[in-house]
Amino acid sequence: MVPEWLLRIDTVTSAILTPLAIAILISGCDDLLVDIIWAIAWIGERIGGRPSALEKTPERQQKRIAIFVPLWKEHAVIRRMLEHNIAAIDYESYDIFIGAYPNDDPTLQAIREIGARYHNVFLAVCPHEGPTSKADCLNWIYQRMLIHEEECGIVYQMVVTHDAEDIIHPQSLSTLAQHSDHFDMVQIPVLPLPTSPLEIIHGIYCDEFSESQTKDMGVRRIMGSFTPSSGVGTGYSREALDRLAMASNNCIFEPVCLTEDYENGMRLHHFGCPQIFVPLDREVATREYFPRNLRAAIRQRTRWMTGIALQTWERHGWKGSLGDVYWLWRDRKGLIGNPLSFATNILFVYCLATCWWMPATHRLSPHLASATLALLVYRTAVRMACVGRVYGLIFALAVPLRSVCANFVNAMASFLATYQYARAKIRREPLRWLKTDHGYPSRAALVTHKRKLGEILAGSGYIGMDDLSEALSTKPPELRLGEYLVMRGALTESDLYEALSLQQGLPAGQVHRLDVAQNAARALPRHVMRSWRVLPFRIAYGSLHVATPEVPTDDMTRELREFTSLDVRFQLVTSENFEELMRSH
After folding, report:
1. How far is Cα of residue 517 from the mean position of the Cα atoms in its chain?
2. DSSP 8-state code for residue 418
3. CB-side exposure of 91: number of CA atoms within 13 Å?
4. Closest-CA residue to 117 (of 582, 572, 574)
5. What is the pLDDT at residue 469?
6. How confident is the model at residue 212 (pLDDT cuts 50, 70, 90)?
7. Which of the residues 316, 328, 461, 535 has an alpha carbon 20 to 30 A from that of 569?
8. Residue 567: beta bridge partners?
């Protein structure tokens, strides 16, 4: 005998099952249309070649580029971000403008410390206390850039936006400059750094970014719609910035928008400014870690959903070409589609558990059930193919598991976005900026993004290409390239450490015996100093400065931090200088 309450649940399930299946089928057909357009374009490119606008342009004088980095309480990551990226970027003519607030002393101190080491890093202090919004901070960085131009008599031809957690690809600025010959807004792909296939929350971002940037971004352009900025890795031509500034009282980013990047993509499209998304197969992408826990992921996606689906709907409605309206629908349908997908998962489990003894599942048309199931399998296969192309087969095998979790995260974000938006309107309050906490990858994760030592040695004129080629072909496998060159007399030890400084983004230079503070030298146990070949020599601004002739590793950093609560800052010194210091202390 089936309990009465179960029969009532079954009655409700029967009533909503068919409408829900129809809604899922319509959404699936919408996705299928995008896949068909992408497949036709992909086949056309393989037959007829890529559009000429994407072909490389001849090499010539580099364009001057300004990189904008807005910050609020990012002192824990900004040093490593700048050190790594300045060392990795294979481009000469660029400066970095970093925005911070007067009531964020740790971040201000970190920027000033970095600025003292690098001639191309400039601080832009907002005139009011923070936090306000990312867009507001970016606008004040823009004003700082204008002042710098007046003071130095220079003009930046392009502005690129980045965040405190970004790993900038070495060829990113070159790619942006190249495409800016044809486009006023250029978007470099943004990809999450690879993690374990079972790290579910972060894997959701890997899955969704792989699919959207493999297919959706290209189809948007084919259909004549706008290219939304990702907020990082976005290059704006100076002409585009001038258009934005003239249209909104010198505010190139809309301060009230929670997703000012998406807004700018739409505004520039309406101004008639050409835009492009650089294809993923160019292998140039901005990498970063996205939220890795449930609460942070829902928080970030709530902001995205509020800004993209609700705020831009209020500000811009449904205007534009047919392609624009279609992609506005695609961007906003998650408000309904995300909760429906989550409800489908629940009903699927319910129907699976009760299909032998409850009548609800028998009331759904078998043809409708088969169609929705076929679309679900197809969509999962497509996503797995996109993910496998970027992250490999093993990572792609966990896509079905992560998709279930993604439905829950996105549904919660849709509910919260709708609730917070409605509450703000009822109370006549501004929407709040939900800032994402940032982390920066370990040194091991950054190795593949650094320029090779041989490339730096030859490119900076320390050795000739013939010497480099000969050394690479004759070097014993147990010796490092730099050591071998010094041993052969082709390179001085001092020049080697200057090159390592450029590669690693670490300061290098001789440390004199009198520069070593006794309280600093005793900060680490003697056996640790000899084991890792390190010597602390100064304590300043909450950091322990350590001299070493070795390139720091994650293991080295991890063990040193077990003996001090201070932030460990490395300085490269020659082996001779290090041994002299150790004998003196």
Report:
1. 40
2. H
3. 28
4. 572
5. 87
6. very high
7. 461
8. 543
What is the C-alpha separation between 219 and 210, in angstroms, rounded? 14
Beta bridge partners of 160: 67, 235
Cβ contacts of residue 122 below 8 Å, gap of 6+? 95, 96, 97, 98, 115, 144, 148
**C-alpha to C-alpha distances, 560 to 294, 320, 435, 541, nearest whole angstrom:** 31, 58, 31, 18
- Exposed / middle / buried, residue 556 (Cβ in 10 Å: 0-12, 13-18, 19+): buried
**Residues 6 or more apart in contact with residue 25 via CB below 8 angstroms:** 368, 371, 372, 375
Give yes or no for residue 331 having a pLDDT over 90: yes
Give the whole-angstrom CA distance, residue 290 versus residue 41: 31
Q: Which two tokens stand for residue 378?
A: 């197809």
Pairwise CA distance, residues 398 & 356, whole Å: 29
What digits encode the pLDDT tens for the residues 132-148?
Answer: 888 889 999 999 999 99
User: What are 282's two structure tokens?
Assistant: 């160019």
Nearest to 265 by CA among 227, 294, 236, 292: 227
Cα(374)–Cα(128) distance, integer angstroms:
56
What region does 507 belong to: left with phi over 0, alpha with psi -120 to 50, or beta?
Answer: beta
Rounded to an integer, the average pLDDT of 415-430 is 90
Which residues fall within 8 angstroms of residue 426, CB to CB, at 6 or more apart? none
Show the tokens assigned to 332: 């906003």
Decide if 163 contacts 232 (C-beta within 8 A): yes
In the chain, pLDDT over 70 holds for what percent of residues?
91
By C-alpha distance, which of 34, 20, 49 is closest to 216?
A: 34
Closest CA to 486 of 461, 462, 460: 462
Q: Is the pLDDT of residue 203 over 60?
A: yes
Beta strands 567-572 and 543-548: pairing type? parallel
Are the C-beta atoms of 312 and 205 separated by less than 8 Å?
no
Q: Which amino acid, one-letter code, is at 27?
A: S
Sheet with 535-540, side-by-side order of all strands? 535-540, 543-548, 567-572
Distance (Å, rounded) from C-alpha 143 to C-alpha 155?
A: 13
The C-alpha atoms of residue 33 and residue 329 are separated, in whole angstroms, by 14
Tokens of 553: 């590793």
- Alpha-carbon span 348 to 187, nearest angstrom: 39
Cα separation of 334 and 414, whole Å?
Answer: 7
CB 456 within 8 A of CB 473: no
- DSSP string for residues in 420-484: HHHHHHHHT-PPPP-PPP-----HHHHGGGSPPHHHHHHHTTSS-HHHHHHHHHH--TTS-HHHH
Half-sphere exposure of 388 (CA within 13 A, CB side): 13
H helix intervals, 49-192 = 75-88, 105-117, 134-152, 172-179
For residue 307, the 8-state DSSP code is: I
Give phi and psi for 235, each to the nearest 5.
-105, 125
Closest CA to 210 of 193, 233, 235: 193
State the DSSP H helix or E strand holding residue 372, giving kind and residue range, or none if neither. helix 366-391
3-state secondary structure of 527: helix
